[in-house]
Amino acid sequence: MVLPRQTCGLFTHTLLLERYPGGRQRLDRSIQGGELFQTVINNPINVFMTHMSNYGNDRLALYTFESVVKFLRCWTNVRLASAPPLALAEKYFQLRPDELNPLWGNPCDDIRHRRIWSKSKWCDTLPKILVIGPQKTGSTALYTFLAMHPTLVPNLPSPTTYEELQFFNNNNYLKGLDWYLNFFPPSQSNNTQITFEKSATYFDGDLVPRRAHALLPNAKIIAILISPSKRAYSWYQHIRSHGDPVANNYTFHTVITANDSSPKPLRDFRNRCLNPGKYSHYLERWLTEYNAHQVHILDGSLLRTEPATAMNTLQKFLKIPHLDYNKLLKYDAKKGFFCQAVSGEKTKCLGKSKGRIYPPMEDRSAKFLRRYYSTHNTALSKLLVRLGRPVPQWLKEELTTNG
Ligand code: A3P
């Protein structure tokens, strides 16, 4: 928690009244109805940092605050009270619960902040591209393809969450900017390179768009979309293979058709499974923070079947030198996906957890989900038209099947 402080016009260089810029008159004006008076009267809680009396035993801070209190008592009905700092802090956050969590900005954006930012720290390597997911749309494939580009440098891997840092959407955010920056060391990239990060849980994280924008206002945002029904099914299979008890106790159909009288763990699981597929809802939230021209909506089906075509459009959006992915990716019949072409006929595919083999979705589940996502899909198609973006084939198909 970070408590904001007010400024009172006294600084290290204004410890002596006789040296106060503008003289005593100026300080008195601030006290008697001027800036300091206004600050105190307009803020329900005021936190000031004053200097202790100095070696010359100047009492400027005491004079200033005693005077402003006297003035307020004399000329207003404001009731002043004081409390120990911790109690004040608690009161402050009761009044301003929205400020409980800090919001990190870029320390290098403001020249005054940059001046006091430690020489041993940096901020130039903060990512300029964020791949936000959602989960199970091909985000790891995209991450791998981007990392193959000589202009792009991913974050260092995290020991706990592998390639995903999941900074903006969970408690890692509270570890602060240093924690995040350490995954983007200056030594890892040169001046012409661009750093990027991918965390597929960013897409639907409540606080993520606001937090991301506060730190990375100029970043380019990439969302990947596939059929929301397929995404939900892939997510269920993914979680099930990790031994999740809910996924193992309930069939996919039971999960998606859970209702308000279902046990809470099942309802929660259903929400986690289905909510990220309400694409337009989450995209609109991103678009309240970022300009539409900063946001690329990538067709995840195209990335899967024609990755080079999808990567061409993406490279144009990112304004990076063109790399021919036709030469770098090769279809691997055994895996059933495009993989990195290595020497000769060899390929390097994503691990077993990507492109899993599982039975096809039951017809009744597919039918249920088509109806479930129908309004969301319509809203997505309207959103894409509004933004002048192509409507992907999978979305056209889902909308016609509904009709
Ligand atoms: P399945 O494992 O259900 O088939 P994410 O990386 O966001 O978790 O997405 C995983 C999904 O990416 C996989 O889901 C798979 O269908 C899809 N995908 C797209 N291109 C792929 C590729 N080249 N290799 C492996 N999986 C790919």
From TrEMBL:
Disulfide bonds: C339-C349
A GO cellular-component term linked to this record: Golgi membrane
Gene3D superfamilies to which the protein is assigned, alphabetical: P-loop containing nucleotide triphosphate hydrolases
Keywords recorded for this protein, A-Z: Disulfide bond, Glycoprotein, Hydrolase, Multifunctional enzyme, Transferase
Domain Heparan sulphate-N-deacetylase deacetylase: 1-37
Pathways involved: Glycan metabolism; heparan sulfate biosynthesis; Glycan metabolism; heparin biosynthesis
Binding site residues for 3'-phosphoadenylyl sulfate: S234, K354, G355, R356, I357, Y358
Enzyme Commission number(s) of this protein: 2.8.2.8
Active site annotation, chain numbering: K136 (for sulfotransferase activity)
GO molecular function: deacetylase activity; heparan sulfate N-sulfotransferase activity; hydrolase activity
Pfam families: HSNSD-CE, Sulfotransfer_1
Keyword Transferase assigned: yes
UniProt domain Sulfotransferase: residue ranges: 127-374
UniProt enzyme class: transferase
Record family assignment: Belongs to the sulfotransferase 1 family. NDST subfamily.
Name under which the protein is recorded: [heparan sulfate]-glucosamine N-sulfotransferase
Species per Swiss-Prot/TrEMBL record: Euphydryas editha
Taxonomic classification: Eukaryota, Metazoa, Ecdysozoa, Arthropoda, Hexapoda
